[in-house]
């Protein structure tokens, strides 16, 4: 019955619905630690942290209890002109752990909204800062960027498959090449291409220095583009140039925040303090929709003026700073400390590297990319020429289905197999995740070799 109703009524995100009907996707009924259990009682290891957000597992007693305790007080009240206890406590906690200088917290409810907030803040800031520069009205993005699915965040993104169809609806941005060197243009070596990317960044920013409001980057790892790992020094270079040229830096830590790259926030690894920072996915431990955009005192103070001056930030969502979400987030951050989750991430990162090393020479693996506990395994038809599989094979998706038969939930990005264990996952389960993924890749690539 549920299956029928699902097919009759639920329109699934990022899901080709014609194929979905045939595939009998698990209908999840329960979570248990790092497992998900479907209505037929089948158990799956959650290999992608329920789309990159789960941190400590499912049904974590401490987080469950924190939400229950908040339920006994109030589930929701507005932050528009009012305040609430957990939203204040969480703001204070966040300011303690983010890069120093980010002192103001604007809540919203998803990664996309946290990016919308950042881009509107940056734009408005340029118009009403002490020496206004309203001509700074453009944004610079990195090619292949993903910042969410609302029209503003889609404008900042550039994943053709997701974004092209909306072209005419979007505002224009300038883009710099993504500094990754698997497939380099004619005439470049891998090194010379990376050098070119650094130069292009500098050239673009310098030649438009007076028009750019902000640069937005996914620090260290471009997630949705296929877990693309930036070379050391790139983020640092973006910060140096933006600082020198009076351009704001927006760090979209939605995917990389809360430990994924090995430090609490990716910016820490290059000693970068952005002007605006977006966090979402992992903030509540993967329990509830909550996001935040952090800002410096400098940006915040440009919005301070008598109410009639019109400098207020006129933006907010009904569920902004939801108390249940904030309570979950506080409990999650407490567990980060109590259980030294960052140390677990370090151990698991090393384990992933060791376990996945066998794929390095696999004839259908172009590259195994990893930063911390974010992994992308790119499958190709031919490792030498990097010729991709034909799109109609849906190779990445086939691997997902093979993994499902092995009791493992994963979800690819095209033909990039993504492994995203929860930061607190025990080593034995990370090992199982690797074994299941490798087996599934071998199974599918073997089958396709026969085609
Ligand atoms: C997932 C993601 C978003 C969008 O977050 P939602 O909560 O899905 O809106 C934005 N930026 C990055 C880098 C992401 O990975």
What would you note in describing this structure?
The protein has 451 residues and is α/β, with parallel strands linked by helices. The protein has helices at 2-9, 17-23, 49-52, 61-71, 85-97, 111-128, 151-156, 160-163, 190-207, 234-245, 297-301, 323-338, 341-356, 395-405, 427-449, and strands at residues 28-32, 35-38, 43-46, 102-108, 138-142, 174-176, 212-217, 221-222, 228-229, 248-252, 276-279, 291-296, 365-371, 374-379, 408-409, 416-419. The protein has 2 domains: 2-56 and 340-448, Aspartate Aminotransferase, domain 1; 64-338, Type I PLP-dependent aspartate aminotransferase-like (Major domain) (Aspartate Aminotransferase, domain 2, 3-Layer(aba) Sandwich). It contains 15 helices and 16 strands. The strands form 4 sheets. Strands 4-12-11-10-7-5-6 form a 7-stranded mixed sheet, sandwiched between helices. Strand 8 and strand 9 form a beta hairpin. The protein binds pyridoxal-5'-phosphate. Residues 110-112, 115, 146-148, 218, 223-224, 252, 254-255, 280-281 line the site of pyridoxal-5'-phosphate. Pyridoxal-5'-phosphate is lined by residues 110-112, 115, 146-148, 218, 223-224, 252, 254-255, 280-281.
